Amino acid sequence: MSGAPAERYERLFTPMALGRREVKNRIAFPAMITGLGAGNRPTERTVAAYARTAAGGAGMVVSEALAVHPTSEPKPFALVTYDPAGWDGFARIAEAVEREDCRMIGQLYHLGRSQLWTTGDARPMGPSALPDFYSGTMPRVMSHGDIAMLTEAFAHSAAMLAARGFSGVELHAAHGHLLSLFLSPWSNHREDAYGGDVTGRTRFLREVIEAIRAATGPDFVVGLKMPGDEGVRGGLRPADAAALFTRVQEGAPVDYVCFAQGTIAPSFGDHVPDMHYPPTPYLDLQRELRAAAGGVPVVAVGRVRSAAEAETTLRSGAADLVALGRALVADPDLPRKARARQEEQIRPGVYCNACWGEVHAGRPAACPVNPGFGLTAQEAAPAAAASARRVTVVGGGVAGLEAARAAADRGHRVTLLAGPRLGGRTRAESRLPGRGDLGRLVVSQEEAARRAGVEVVLGAQAREADVLATAPDAVVLATGARMRPPAALVGTGINDYLATPAGPASGTAVILGEDDGAAVCALAELRASRHPRTVLLTPRLAPAETVPYTSRLGVHRRLSAARVEVVTGAAARGLDGTTLHYENLFTGDPATVDGVGQVVWATARIPVDDLYGPLRRRGLAVHRVGDAHAPATLLTALTQARTVAEEL
Ligand SMILES: Cc1cc2nc3c(=O)[nH]c(=O)nc-3n(C[C@H](O)[C@H](O)[C@H](O)COP(=O)(O)O)c2cc1C
Asked: Which domain holds residue 247?
């Protein structure tokens, strides 16, 4: 695409007023739990992560959700506002971000009835005695005393952040946390002044806003993140959201609003739409809500993947600011690079939700495509190698590309021996329904390897002689993995799941999902669109157990919508004509699927590292990365590829 930045991103890089402050452009970083804290306080890593995002050129950064009261039961890596030991850390975050002429906004919340990390002896609170979908916990119904106590906690927190140099706060009244539980008739069944109609359900929120206004000055920005569509029966829909927001503005106006989707219910994945959602899935919804927002600046959020998509969002009238969350986790320099028209250098997010997966597992957020997340720019810069060596990487999948690029960035002379095409199984997987963003990753890796000076040799699968011909000082094997046909079915002419099965789509399709990750479930969807009946057999308690929770919900939704029959705790025992025999692993009972037209298998992967022994015997330093080392996730494969490259 052509045009100077001013033309291409005419809206995106235009300043605007936010309350009485100014933001230099329309790019916001939304609240994202980094998990980089310790003892509930910001660490060096927390400060570095925010400083890094601001240095990349965003106009506004919203902090991760900060718990305002101990009853919110945060994990030690999550941040809280009520412990004075953390207040210096907040001052450092504000200083580091505002120094970049970027507005630092603190997001305030209370988890409410949801227990994201523990289901132990926590005492969750909520408006009504209704259980949390995620953890199953039943909250204590809040008294008026509890409401007053937390209102004060919100106000104290805002005053503390104002005194530490924050430009404002954002109230987290979305995603099923406490303030949103009060807003929604789905979760608020109260019959007192804090429930019932729009006035009652907004009362707690309005009291919080009023208390914050009273505790801070007129220049302090107060923003709101609230549900636009909860996506649950009996919950808030866009028209309800518009009515609620109008009521809030009448009594306790805010300076901006962000309408978020989903709540802690089967719709929870909607708040972090993964690669299976279309790009900018909420554009129409946001346009509709902005029209109802009465001129208050609206921040659009949700799978806006690039500066171009952000500009389109602005031009379509859906927003005044656009939040780019996972896009900036993947590459915080996106704003700066877009402005300089270096779009091809932007690392695209893959929307795999590995970041949420890590956080839910109690670990710091991590991103497969951004090794530098949580590091300072200095730390993230590749350390030059002590001496430039000849490094040969065998295998052009994502791990091989990553190792090659990372080694070349350190000054090594790198040759990449790949098969006929780059991208390996990830490229093949990207052709399955909803997996397309993986293709963007491969393209950007190819581009990055080229820029780093990697010599790419495409051809047949490399043999020992091919590797030796490159006269390497060190070899990295990224030769991937293969799936072994299930022993019970060898010789029956069934298909590996990535070899898209051809042939007539008659009869029942059976997928043997020993590997039942998101890709295999996507294949089940594909088969279901072609066969009258599709059955997925998994040995586990449920399919996709290894997929991050926020994406697993979508897997289940799609399997249900596609009418895929899931048989859990099952293993195939044989195929007899059109009858598949399997066993219930808990009882040992035999069972069958009849009328089978197609069987596809996805078994656990076995590393392909045949070259390892022979090359070692030649005295070469040989490293294995990615699936060739141990088949695992994209995050593990890419992290390990970089680690090996750093040790060369
Ligand atoms: C790891 C992770 C942590 C998040 N933490 C928060 C949070 O603390 N508060 C919040 O309002 N939203 C949180 N979100 C949601 C984001 O603010 C944002 O709404 C969502 O990621 C969609 O935007 P994106 O498609 O640009 O990533 C989180 C999302 C992720 C992936």
From this structure: 5-361
